[in-house]
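User: Sequence for Restriction endonuclease below. Tokens please.
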Amino acid sequence: MWVGLEYGLRVALQDLTSREAVLAAIAEFREIGREAFLQKYGYGEARSYFLSFEGELFDSKAIVGAAHGFQHPKPLANTAFSGGDATVRAKLESLGFNVVSSKESAGGSSPRPLPSLEPGRIYSWDELGNLFDCEANYFSSVGGMASRPEMQALLLITHIGGAKSFDYEDYWDGDELIYTGRGQTGDQRMDGQNKLLASNRYTNFMFEGAATRLLRFLGVVRSTQHWWSTGPDSNGTQRRIIRFRLRFNERAGATTAAPTTASRRARRAPTLTPRPFDETRVPSAAVPGEEKRSPEETLALKEKAVQGHFHLVAALNRALLSAGWQEVREIPTSVDLWGRRPGDGRRVIFEVKTLGERSEVDLTRDALSQLLEYRHFRGEPDDLLCLVMNAPVSDARERFLRSQGVAVLTYDGTGFEAAGPLALEMVGTLVEQT
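Assistant: Structure tokens for Restriction endonuclease:
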């Protein structure tokens, strides 16, 4: 039997990040039996918590110690870490496993009564630890989902706008919360706490991060729908994630806390800071798309297209400022320009396109898609949309864009002209002064 005390004391429990390593430890437990497994790794029998998997119970701390040896060169010794809510239980639950208490595993007669929480009230970790019979630090290690099988309760934590460590991109859809499943790295799985939430097996308590070691109780929720989507993990790699639509319980006179102003904001793409347009910067020739030409020809065409786009944006920027528009800004790698028009201060988002090798149809399709995305992810619902071209578009194409709420401006090298009535209505002052 390898004890490895010195090695165990030098490693941390968080080094165990592999679900497959835990499954390997479970397989060995089953193969050699409980007594031999505990003797091999130097662990005593569990007294408080057991890993529940496929209808069987396993000594949770011993499984974690052995699993470390399947992921890393050596297992963890019994003396290298402590068991309990904030350590072994939190680690196994973070990997998608279910951990039960000795009372529950022994078939306790009924779950412990649920605490009565006040929607809108902010609770400290210490208070919640007392109410749900767990250590306060359990909330720092368990992530956004904490199960309390003794009470048949699932504690859910959301951070609208992103937590300090990771942004699950939860958001409000009316009065319902779109909530992302558990798991920060790799594809998420429909097991553990994710499965509990999808089936509404437990009572689901929803909290919102309020401040350090503080959580605001929003109410009791029920999952009405779940689906697979995609999103970045903590390493920025795209992966499969589970989205839940959560509805707050209004039965039996239950109340729900009104979401805070910050959490009510529509979801936004990663932050990009608007800035005044800089005519002195040199535009890059790196534009998307591959051309089936020689490298020299491709580079020359790209430089021409980028230079033309840059000069058109610069001309638009000067015209807007000259006409008295306010807050004229660009968002690098995103919005070409936006600004607030004189008079009513309504903001218009501009997308600039230059006709060249690509067709009018391709360019206007791209522009429509981009403008709608920019308004949704960067702007506000009442922002107006305008496409700016360096040459006229067909009447049919202008009518189509107008039907979608997009105005069209054309630039003839000296001034801007409105293509159709919507452009004249939307940016008339710009046309008049040119």
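The chain is about 35% helix and 25% strand.
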